[in-house]
Amino acid sequence: MVEVNALGRQLVIDAWGCGELDDEEKVKSFLEECVRACGATLLSMDTHRFSPQGISGIAVIAESHISVHTWPEYSYAAIDVFTCGKKVEPYNAIDVIKRFFSPARMTVNEVKRGISVETLC
């Protein structure tokens, strides 16, 4: 028998047709709300505004990180929600994305991180 264990889960989310993506305060609020919705513990947060447009932001959480990178000129946001442990639910970020950015469409891919495969006897 083979047992597969992962140390963490990472949601790689592409959001297209988004509303306002060039408001730095909105991006900060988005990250804070994602942390709360997922049940994570915020350690620090940082954002950066690009010229002429676009914002990158990251929330470092005790359970890993949540990040967002925006391309307002394409109405596109790339979002990662990487968590470890059993108490955090990364999929709760999806409703937050919908509420903050109103994407026309999204793709969500889950990546298992730190997989170890052990053969049990």
Descriptive account of the structure:
With 121 residues, the chain is of the alpha+beta class. The protein has one domain (2-119): S-adenosylmethionine decarboxylase (4-Layer Sandwich). 20% of the residues lie in helices and 48% in strands. The strands form two sheets. It has a six-stranded antiparallel β-sheet, covered by helices on one side. The protein is globular.
Q: Supply the CATH architecture.
A: 4-Layer Sandwich
Count the beta strands: 8
Helix-residue proportion: 10-25%
Mean pLDDT: 93
CATH class: Alpha Beta
Distance N terminus to C terminus? 7 Å
The best one-word shape is globular
CATH homologous superfamily (4th level) name:
S-adenosylmethionine decarboxylase
- How many DSSP H or I helices? 2
Arrangement of strands in the largest sheet = 3-4-5-6-2-7
Report on the biggest sheet: 6 strands, antiparallel
Kindly provide the radius of gyration, computed on alpha-carbon positions and rounded to a whole number of angstroms: 16 Å
Number of domains: 1
> Low-confidence spans: pLDDT under 50, at least 5 residues?
none
Structural class comes to alpha+beta
Fraction in beta strands: over 45%
Series of secondary-structure elements, N-terminal to C-terminal: EEHEEEEHEE
| CATH topology group | S-adenosylmethionine decarboxylase
Core attributes:
121 residues, alpha+beta, S-adenosylmethionine decarboxylase, six-stranded antiparallel sheet, two-stranded antiparallel ribbon
